[in-house]
Amino acid sequence: MSHESDTPRDLAPSTLRLAGIQIRDPFVLTVAETGTYYLFGSTDKDIWRGPAEGFDCYRSADLEQWVGPIPAFRPPAGFWSDRNYWAPEVHAYDGRFFMFATFTAEGVRRGTQILVSDAPSGPYVPWGDGPVTPREWECLDGTLHVDEAGDPWIVFCHEWAQVWDGEIVAQRLSPDLSRAIGEPLVLFRASEAPWVERLRHPRVPEDVAAYVTDGPFLHRLASGGLIMLWSSFGGSGYAMGIARSASGRVQGPWVQEDAPIWARDGGHGMIARTLDGGLLLTLHQPNETPLERAVLLELEETAETVRPSPRVA
Predict the structure, then answer these.
(1) How far apart are CA 86 and CA 280, in angstroms?
(2) What is the mean pLDDT of each run of 10 residues along the chain (313 residues)?
(3) Cα 246 to Cα 147: distance, rounded to the nearest angstrom
(4) For position 13, what pLDDT does the model report?
(5) Rounded CA gap, 54 and 73, in Å?
(6) Of 2, 27, 50, 230, which is most buried, counting CB atoms within 10 Å of its CB?
(7) d(Cα 238, Cα 165) in Å, to the nearest integer?
């Protein structure tokens, strides 16, 4: 893989700590060859109503001090989406870096588009013909999973706003990640998790039970087991739970843990590998714009799941 110098193209970088970076849906890419971490996330100042500018990233050698913002994606002329740029993830795959991110536009259903770059910080450009999630569905938060046979999948959310009981769905991707192949497979619904509570929202009729699915991320345990982080709303607000595949395959069936791994007004996380081989849980907290910040926690792994390290206060 080729790596560039990460020289910003339209912003002057500075050195920051996480407390100084407004970001949602944090995702850490670890590039061991250069000893560098890259932090991506939803970085527009108001991702709900404000103008969509793109995605920035930050780089670090120690997870403490971060250099940025570095423009990772700016929409090219004629790009189909003009709002709600959400939750970018970056995965090293087949010698390049692929960004999975959520976009929407007036009259166009929300979906996950894949972008590509030769360098971890970008610039990323569209890959394939628009979203790879089903065009007639409201979808978000696509993530890459490469199965035990080496075949790529996208795992994503079929949004509560369309189906009320939000779904986690898997679909095969072509080997070059340019398009989806096969039929989407519903893995589970939000209401199956004991810790998830009904969503109270102006768009939800009083006689309808709505449940949220957000931010799936799959992790292969050292034991060979397969788990998935995903987020919803619990008794203390936004939260993140764990599901486990009983078969060890993405097709499941998936079994929900009784309690969330994070229950206190935060979520949409992933599991990163540190340069020394440890595991790191990311999430944003609080779940309120513009106060959201990235939180990084050490993880301990068992044969069946992961838990925050006892060393974490």
Answers:
(1) 22
(2) 44 85 98 98 93 96 97 96 97 98 95 98 96 98 98 98 97 98 97 96 93 98 98 97 98 98 97 97 97 97 94 46
(3) 15
(4) 76
(5) 5
(6) 230
(7) 16
Cα torsion 148, 28, 296, 294: sign: negative
Residue 68 bridge partners (DSSP)? 14
Paired residues of 8 in beta bridges: none
Give pTM, 2 decimals.
0.94
Domains of the chain: 14-308 (2.115.10.20)
Structure tokens at 131: 């979203």
Strands 226-234 and 214-220: antiparallel
Q: Over the chain, what HEC string results?
A: CCCCCCCCCCCCCEEECHHHCCCEEEEEEEECCCCEEEEEEECCCCCCCCCCCCEEEEEECCCCCEEEEEEEECCCCCCCCCEEEEEEEEEEECCEEEEEEEEEECCEEEEEEEEEECCCCCCCEEECCCCCCCCCCCEEEEEEEECCCCCEEEEEEECHHHHCECEEEEEEECCCCCCEEEEEEEEEEHHHCCCCCCCCCCCCCCCCCCECCEEEEEEECCCCCEEEEEEEEECCEEEEEEEEECCCCCCCCEEECCCCCECCCCEEEEEEECCCCCEEEEEEECCCCCCCEEEEEEEEECCCCEEECCCCC
Alpha-carbon gap, residue 310 to 115, rounded angstroms: 38
- Burial class, 89, CB count within 10 angstroms (exposed 0-12 / middle 13-18 / buried 19+): buried
